[in-house]
Automatic annotation (TrEMBL):
GO terms of biological process kind: carbohydrate metabolic process
UniProt keyword terms in alphabetical order: Glycosidase, Hydrolase
Species of origin: Aspergillus mulundensis
GO molecular-function terms, A-Z: beta-galactosidase activity
Annotated protein name in UniProt: Glycoside hydrolase family 35 protein
Transmembrane segments: none
Keyword presence, S-adenosyl-L-methionine: no
One cellular component term from this protein's GO annotations in UniProt: beta-galactosidase complex
Length: 565
């Protein structure tokens, strides 16, 4: 039996555990939760009841190596054992040198020794000088060596205690790396490195790569010299390649932060080669997008490096990260306030980077969007943050996803689509897409809000084509929408619904079975299939023609008619 790993399959990149593809339905715990097996004993059953099958939780450097060279894994072992008993996978988050741009989870012996583990210095506008922050400098060789040794010991231990069980299926290396408070490290150590210019190996990579990210190309492509123009003896300044000011600073930090993380990741992968990734505190490209409806801007990122962590693996510097971190299997976005679909697109480029969202909103806004991530972008998982204190909202969606996981895992990327509709504001027009569509062979599938006589509600769901790619049969899953079809052949004169059946999940067999044959009001007499919300608004209409949601799963077959007119 192999260790957990990622595999490119006809159905996309999938996580393989015990030789079978699995669909992770994860939630991330609060930062300290996984440090206590006793605390987690009060949580496992509640998570399981919400169909959460994977938990993301922190393992911190300060806890496992409180004294240099002495490692403590007893509490972690108890947590892993309990997760296994409850049938829950673990994705461990290594809070080593970096967590949210600072080093608060480093051991005491690291924090106190600033000569061996030098700190980052930033510019302080109030004093007109530099100040020290609690961040180990990415230029600290002793820093990455100590972190790598600890992470390697952790991974070695995981292999020993869990290699035969595969409870731990992935590990995140560090957390939301980068520098907050300035666009780059201003320490003497950093200034010397900055003066050396862009490493020639990086420049050659960027000039020859055929898979540069579109966000990188938008910003920097016109400044990168061709391979034939690069001379070994020339110093190419960061400003000349990446632009003046904060753009050069960010690229500089991205190179050295990723180099640091790359060393740590390599040590872990060498010890136990299960999937590794790192996560991203995202930026906003457009400053006008910073209106977060009253939320503090620090939680949403910013438009300037240093407001968001400068040097973290944002899309426009992801190519620098990939150059330095071959031991990482992918880069992942923490996604709270950004355009959800655009971020999904950004983190499935290149195609070898599978989508995994290690942090996102746990409210209905976030829960609706997981359908898009799983359905359209083949996500390995989407992980609402703080599920040990509230998981019922995401649980409603995960319970449905559990029931159709087999169909999702067995569908090709072009045979599925996810979508969502947000709540309509009390005043003003709806935001976001009001119509989703996808072509399957010669048939267009069109998704709109569910029909009601009153106010239309929010919704979300997924369409999966059943059978071959020219099939007209579909599994329809979710709430708050309706599905209609349009034949695309020029000879088609009519497109309708041939058959529609509400399905229910049989827990004993793990299969779907027919509960009711739908027609009449449920299909608007063959016009479209309605997948209602739990409480449709009748708007005062005296006849209940839109019934509340029940199983939220249907199998629908469309058909077309071709006539001589």
């Amino acid at each position: 039996m192999s260790f957990p790993h990622l595999a490119q399959t006809p159905n996309g990149i999938q996580l393989i555990v015990k030789d079978k593809p699995v669909l992770l339905l994860p939630g991330e715990l609060h930062n300290s939760s996984l440090s206590s097996a006793r605390y987690m004993s009060t949580v496992w059953s509640d998570l399981k009841a919400q169909s959460i099958n994977t938990v993301l939780g922190a393992v911190t450097w300060e806890v496992i190596e409180p004294i240099e060279g002495q490692f403590a894994f007893t509490e972690l072992d108890a947590v892993i054992t309990d997760a296994r008993k409850h049938g829950i996978y673990l994705v461990l988050l290594w809070f080593g040198s970096y967590k949210n741009g600072i080093s608060t989870y480093a051991p005491h012996w690291v924090k106190r020794d600033v000569e061996r583990f030098p700190r980052v210095h930033v510019w302080d506008a109030d004093t007109g000088g530099k100040r020290t922050i609690e961040m180990i400098s990415p230029f600290s060789e002793e820093g990455w060596k100590a972190d790598a040794r600890a992470f390697g010991k952790l991974m070695e231990h995981l292999k020993e205690v869990d290699g035969d069980h595969s409870t731990v299926v992935m590990v995140q290396v560090e957390n939301e790396t980068g520098l907050l408070g300035d666009s780059r490290d201003r320490s003497d150590l950093a200034e010397r490195e900055f003066a050396k210019g862009v490493p020639i190996k990086l420049l050659r990579h960027l000039s020859t790569s055929e898979e540069l990210h579109p966000r990188f190309i938008e910003r920097f492509a016109d400044k990168i010299p061709s391979a034939s123009q690069i001379n070994e003896g020339t110093i190419y300044t960061w400003e000349s390649i990446f632009g003046q000011g904060t753009s050069a600073d960010e690229a500089f930090m991205a190179y050295y932060v990723s180099k640091y993380v790359g060393h740590v990741a390599y040590a872990g992968k060498k010890a136990y080669p299960i999937p590794l990734y790192t996560n991203t505190w995202l930026n906003f490209d457009d400053p006008s997008a910073l209106d977060l409806h009253g939320y503090p801007i620090v939680v949403g990122g910013g438009a300037r490096p240093g407001i968001y962590p400068s040097g973290g693996p944002c899309p426009h510097v992801a190519d620098i990260w990939r150059f330095n971190t071959p031991a990482l299997n992918f880069l992942a976005p923490d996604l709270y306030f950004h355009d959800y679909e655009r971020v999904c697109q950004d983190y499935t480029i290149p195609a070898s980077n599978p989508l995994f969202i290690p942090e996102q909103r746990r409210d209905e806004h976030g829960a609706r969007r997981v359908w898009l991530a799983y359905g359209t972008y083949g996500a390995l998982g989407t992980s609402p943050f703080g599920v040990d204190t509230e998981a019922t909202v995401i649980g409603r969606e995960y319970k449905l996803l559990t029931q159709i996981a087999k169909y999702l895992l067995n569908s090709k990327p072009n045979q599925r689509m996810g979508f969502f509709f947000d709540e309509i504001p009390e005043s003003g027009s709806p935001t976001g897409k009001q119509r989703w569509a996808k072509t399957f062979g010669n048939l267009e599938v069109i998704i709109e809000r569910a029909f009601v006589f009153g106010k239309a509600g929010p919704g979300g769901g997924m369409i999966i084509q059943l059978g071959e790619e020219d099939s007209y049969r579909f599994l329809v899953v979710g709430r708050g929408f309706q599905v209609r079809f349009r034949g695309l052949d020029e000879k088609v004169t009519f497109t309708g619904i041939l058959d529609a059946r509400e399905k229910e999940f049989n827990a004993e067999t793990g299969e779907l079975r027919t509960l009711r044959v739908l027609n009449g009001d449920e299909t608007r007499s063959g016009e479209f299939v309605i997948m209602p919300n739990d409480d449709p608004d009748y708007g005062g209409f005296p006849i209940a023609v839109t019934i509340p949601a029940r199983t939220c799963i249907a199998e629908v077959e469309a058909y077309t008619v071709c006539e001589e007119m």
